[in-house]
Amino acid sequence: MSLLSLLLGEKKKTAAVAKERLQIILAHERAGRNASEPDYLPALQRELLAVIGKYVSIHPDDIKVHLERLDNLEVLEIKIELPDAR
Amino acid sequence: MTKIVVVTSGKGGVGKTTTSASFATGLALKGHKTVVIDFDVGLRNLDLIMGCERRVVYDFVNVIQGEANLNQALIRDKQVDALYILAASQTRDKEALKQEGVERVLNELAGMGFEYIVCDSPAGIETGALMAMHYADEALVVTNPEVSSVRDSDRILGLLSSRTRRAIEGREPVKEHLLITRYNPNRVQDGQMLSLQDIQDILRIPLIGVIPESEAVLQASNQGVPAIHLQGTDVSEAYKDVVDRFLGQDRPLRFIEAQKPSLLKRLFAR
To answer: What are the start-end ranges of the H helices in chain B?
Structure first.
């Protein structure tokens, strides 16, 4: 490490960049490996649509079902967009 | 008891065949009856690295398809008594490796009293690689200190824990060992290369050894001599340590510290 590079502010070493990039991409890929999309999600979406359809007329695309994994926590997110009440 | 060890990595060119040759040779040098099998059907190279390319008459696929028996296909190493090589077929495609056929050959080898069966996996995650790992008891995961190699090793670890017979049958999982090859301590010190610790932090499996980057590996393959035979080289010593550790002995890591350049080199640098 030269004096000059110290004065100019050392840039991050490439090995550290490599490690950080790997940690991020592998965390993502490992999550995907353990069956990230359980097979019940499409069925759940269809049944929700049928139930809600009894009361409100909605389009199949207005229901979004999404499962997210954060370490040990799983979040099942269901978003239903209702048509404009007019 | 026969132990089946797969040498695998996902990525190509990281040192699987070099490692298979030296590791199998090292086990045989310790007196263990060992066979090393090339699973890279269509792209065989183990025979060249072992220096027996001109003695291949029958190969692994011939045995699987019943065109030759094991005694005809096994090549006895010229330098080490307890060592045998089973070459891959050069002409057929990888689909020739059928699971039942592979299992039958491995069982037959066990019946012949082999203590270790070393399976040299092809690169990738296709049939050949999956067959090489399927029956493994232990795995050497060969990894270079480089992003694509580490990522591919992680993928291979996923397959070892899900697609092998041990995983499918719910038995004790395949014992995984991390082998880091082409390691350059000087570049690590300069922050240009992932360190041992970095790679272990990411892959989280026990380290069995570090093979330094060295000109000796090319010298060895040029001659068709497994690198472990090049007495006095760092690579040879490092592979001997790996074999000793595999056999349960305690060996401190070597060749992992950066070398200080000599005074003359420092004076004339830059």
So the answer is: 16-29, 46-50, 60-64, 70-73, 99-111, 127-134, 147-160, 165-168, 185-189, 196-203, 216-223, 234-246, 263-268
Q: What is the pLDDT along chain B (270 residues), one digit of tens a residue?
A: 999 999 999 999 999 999 999 999 999 999 999 999 999 999 999 999 999 999 999 999 999 999 999 999 999 999 999 999 999 998 777 678 889 999 999 999 999 999 999 999 999 999 999 999 999 999 999 999 999 999 999 999 999 999 999 999 999 999 999 999 999 999 999 999 999 999 999 999 999 999 999 999 999 999 999 999 999 999 999 999 999 999 999 999 999 999 887 777 777 765
Nearest chain A Cα distance for residue B126, angstroms: 17
Is A13 touching B (CB cutoff 8 A)?
yes
Judged by DSSP in three states, B243 sits in helix
B152/chain A closest Cα distance in angstroms: 10
The alpha carbon of residue A24 is apart from the nearest alpha carbon of chain B, in Å, by 10
Name the residue in chain A with its Cα closest to that of B202. A23
Strand partners, A79: A64
| Residue among B246, B212, B216 nearest B229 (CA) | B216
Q: What is the C-alpha separation between B239 and A86, in angstroms, rounded?
A: 77
Whether residue B155 and residue A29 make contact (CB cut-off 8 A), yes or no, is yes
Entry pTM: 0.82
CB contact under 8 A, B198 and A19: yes
